[in-house]
Structures are given as structure tokens and as C-alpha cells.
User: Fold this.
Amino acid sequence: MAKKIYPDAQSALEGLLHDGMTIAAGGFGLCGIPERLIDAIVASGVKDLTIASNNAGIDGEGLGKLLRTRQVKKMISSYVGENKEFERQYLAGELEVEFCPQGTLAERMRAGGAGIPGFYTKTGVGTQVAEGKEVKSFDGPNGQEDYILERGIRADLSIIKGWKADEAGNLVFRKTARNFNQPAATCAKICVAEVEEIVAVGALDGDCIHVPSIYVKRLVLGGPYDKKIEFVTTRERENA
Assistant:
């Protein structure tokens, strides 16, 4: 078994980064994002990136760091409403954006990982999402209905965040932090994962593995982490 564990994020990405590449990134908002790997990509200076991710983080956090340094050429995303720099670059014509419905984006990643080049979906029919895409009619609950063709995503690199991994690279996610990390892990030529804890082979329940080790080529211990919160909402305490 080849050694998969690297001492830090920089060494885990060594030899993998190049200008103009496509990266699939796990995470949802600031939940389950590969923070250490993102920081290493920022430090590398690689540019003209296409990134497939649910969102682009927030200003100065997550993938927002790569936007701030102008290393991203194109985002394939479903939600970008909390990032002012994203908005500014897009409206100024400095950033290309391919909007993709959330479920469609997850399925495009899953399809790419499963070797499926495309699939048909009703999501987006009759909207701007369908512009330029093939439309085909299939039987539906109300007779013939239109579906649009969406392409599977194949990336050069996927960067994901896990909860626990064993030394072989089998991964387990924790609750909602699984989000886009699971499909993103499978859809690239090579997957690099950062995790909070690495355990011995056999310590994880084989029936509870979320991503098998065959998908994970490189592994780095990223913890400890500071819990970042996108929105802090409080209320006044009720009188005792």
C-alpha cells in the first residue's frame, strides 16, 4: 500500500497544481470546507482556475480567499449570495460564472465520478439554466415532458474535508459536513483530503465508510480547526 499521508497541505498538493486547471471543492458555506488545502492553493499562486463548488465561501474565508487574490477565472456554483467580492468581480466582467442548480451540481459531480458523461433532468427547463442545452422529451406523470441534458463534471483535482480517515484513506464525514464532499471526492483525476483525525486501518466500521480509499490519493491531517460562523444571530435573554 502506497503511503498516502503527507505532513502538510503544501506537500500534499506538490506536483498537482497548474494554471488553468479545474478543481472540484467540497463544502457548503463554511461547513466542511478544506481550509488547509485552500490556503495552500492561495500560497502556490496558481491562477486561471475553474472551480466547481456549491458556493465561493464568504469574503476572506474559504474559496473567498482565492477570489480575493484573483486566482479564479470561472466558478461553477449554485449559491453565491454571501460574497460581495464575488458579486463585484462578476458584475465587472472579471469572473465567469456558470450557475447550476444545487441538486444538479451534486449530480454532475456524482455522474463524473461514475463515468457518466451526461444525464437529463427537469430542473431548469424553461429557464436561463436551459439556454444552449439539448432538450429531450420523456414520459412523465403528465405525459411527455421536457428534460435538459447536463454534463457530468470531471476535474483535474478534488479537494475535500473529512472527519476521520484511516491510514489507507477510507473516509468518514460528520453529519451535514458530508454535503458536497462526497460527490466531489470521486469526480477528479486525483483527490486530496484533509481530515480532523487519522486512525489505524481497521478502526473504522467498514459498513460506515462514506468514501472508499480507492478514491483518495493523498491525505493530510488538518486539525485543529476554529469553528467559523457565517451569521451570528442572537436574542436578548428573557427576564429571569
Notes: The two ends are 61 Å apart (CA to CA). The chain has a mean pLDDT of 94. The chain has two domains: 5-117+156-221, 119-151. The helical segments are 9-12, 35-44, 64-68, 84-91, 102-113, 181-186.
